[in-house]
Amino acid sequence: MITNYMKKVLVANRGEIAVRVIRSLKQMGIVAVAVYSEADRDALHVKNADEAYLLGPAPSNQSYLLGDKIIEIAKANNVDGIHPGYGFLSENAEFATNVTNADIEFIGPKPDSMRLMGDKLAAKETVSKYDIPMVPGTDSALVDIEEGIEVAKLIGFPILIKASAGGGGKGMRIVEKEEDFREQLKMAINEAKSAFGNGAVFIEKYITSPRHIEIQILADKHGNYIYLNERECSIQRRHQKVIEEAPSAIVTPEIRKKLGEAAVYVAKSCDYIGAGTVEFLMDEKLNFYFLEMNTRLQVEHPVTEYITGLDLVEEQIRVARGETLRFNQKDIALNGHSIELRVYAEDPENNFLPSIGTLETYVEPKGDNIRVDSGFEQGMEVPIYYDPMLSKLIVYGNDRIEAINTMLYAIRKYKIKGLKTTLDFGEFVMKHNAFVSGDFDTNFVKEYFTKEAIKENIQEESTVAALFAVKHYMKNQKKIIEPLHDHGAWCGLND
Ligand code: ADP
Ligand code: ADP
Ligand code: MG
Fold first, then answer.
1. Against a cut of 0.90, is the pTM above it?
2. Same-domain status, 397 and 466
3. Do 154 and 273 reside in the same domain of the chain?
4. What pLDDT is stored for residue 456 in this prediction?
5. Which residues pair with 274 in a beta bridge?
6. Burial of 59 by CB count in 10 Å (0-12 exposed, 13-18 middle, 19+ buried)?
7. CB-hemisphere CA count at 13 Å for 96?
8. CA-CA distance, 342 to 198, in Å (whole number)?
9. Choice among 115, 237, 256, 296 that is catalytic
10. Does residue 1 lie in a domain region?
């Protein structure tokens, strides 16, 4: 069913994700409306949009978090859909309700699904109807400290105290031993209150060497659900992802099917609509445990787009328009391998702390199988008010090794001067034996990464990188010479 509905969509976000959503809107012939703060007057998302409206001063609570103002702008300009991106208002059920009440389509799930999954405890309860393994822990908010200690002892230290409303890697505390529990709990509750406006915290067993594996799902308004394979996101700092890939180096077709089906159950449990992600932890024995569901487009969605050949923003819009999913589970492709590096304005040599400044030089790599989703241009200043992610560097290869090589090539071609970024860190990871062999977990950074390691890496960089560059160049040359349709002809070069 194709409807003509949705001719004009407002993107309630900024940075790379606003730019990326606007790209799909334009490809679909939809008028793209941007909103911006005073700090973002010259931003790329404003330039790329068909129309743009000022929200207010730079701080998020005076601009990108002003739901009512955004809805007002949408109404005044005949917008018929709002895409929230990720972060900001994307997981705010009240905003979604207000959008719907204003007769505008919210491009995302129903407010109730967001409410359930946005609260980790409510999510666990919702999912518990189905036979889905969960990390051992408490199933309600901790109120009594002594009772908390008893539970923690029963589960066994180390444990994790988690904020039910947490996100973006924030609101988690590892407690190694009983003596530390009281103090850590108090701090966790205070932090949760101030950061998320909700002091509810709970206990989870701390899985010591897990991998983070997540499933992308898609659901329409007619009860159809599919899964679009997994992404592995175990390379993290501060419990937040820096490098993601699809597929995972360790997931077999059997496990993929089990994970996918579990994810679909999670989505069904909250009556989900649109694109969403179900996150799992996986232990050494490949047992998996439900972690949470993110009810929005995920930062790392491009790696799934590369291996499935789909445009997830386009699918979100089709679903929001009321179209039926155009494919069944068996139609979902898994071709080749894709890796994403989040290019943060951070200094890896200084605990990944934000590194602000002006992009004196900013040149993106270009080429086959290289995609850069970015919100910046040379000469722009990186504002201190928002997430310090500059861009995402995404590559594709016929297999994992090819993808790693292409990533190394692209990192070398990416020129950023004026502030520190995670590019060198990305190179360190791509060259590390544990990553190359696929034998790693969420402790990768803690276990292997040091200031010295990155320096050594840079010193030997010139020779190794030159080799990769030559190889990549030769491959591209050969590709130009070979007929375009003969895909297989040049693949052999890498074998
Ligand atoms: P993803 O979950 O898509 O892999 P992140 O964990 O990095 O990516 O989160 C995406 C964005 O959403 C980031 O800008 C992060 O700061 C923000 N975010 C996620 N959850 C929350 C939350 N509960 N409160 C505040 N910000 C959040
Ligand atoms: P957020 O909402 O901040 O994304 P998650 O629950 O998804 O929070 O967890 C983020 C990351 O924290 C995971 O990818 C993992 O690295 C780590 N983590 C979360 N729960 C556990 C756990 N029980 N044991 C070990 N690590 C965990
Ligand atoms: Mg998460």
1. yes
2. no
3. no
4. 76
5. 219
6. middle
7. 21
8. 29
9. 296
10. no
- Of all ligands present, the nearest one to the C-alpha of 298 is 1
Last residue of a domain, one of 182, 205, 228: 205
* Residue 366 and residue 230 share a domain: yes
The three-class DSSP label of residue 132 is coil
Which ligand minimizes its atom distance to the CA of 241? 1
**Closest by alpha carbon to 419, among 370, 460, 378?**
378
Structural domain span for residue 56: 8-107
Ligand 2 atom 13 nearest Cα: 239
Cβ of 236 below 6 Å from ligand 2: yes
Does the C-beta of 168 come closer than 6 Å to ligand 1? yes
User: Is the distance from the beta carbon of residue 86 to the nearest atom of ligand 1 less than 6 Å?
Assistant: yes
Residue 265, domain CATH: 3.30.470.20
Q: Is residue 127 part of a domain?
A: no
Same domain, 182 and 265: no
Measured from the CB, is residue 9 less than 6 Å from ligand 2? no
From the first residue on, what is the mean pLDDT of each consecutive set of 10 residues in the chain (495 residues)? 78 98 98 98 97 98 98 98 98 98 98 97 94 92 90 94 92 94 93 93 95 98 98 97 98 98 98 98 95 97 98 98 97 98 97 94 98 96 94 98 98 98 98 97 96 73 52 48 31 27
Q: Answer whether 422 contacts ligand 2 (Cβ < 6 A).
A: no
User: Ligand 1: which residue has its CA nearest to atom 22?
Assistant: 167
CA–CA dist 490, 472 (Å, integer): 11
Closest ligand 1 atom to 233 CA: 4
| 342 among known catalytic residues | no
Which pLDDT belongs to residue 3?
Answer: 54
What is the rounded radius of gyration, in angstroms, for the C-alpha atoms of the chain?
22
3 is a domain residue: no
pLDDT at 168: 87
Six token digits for residue 483: 């007929």
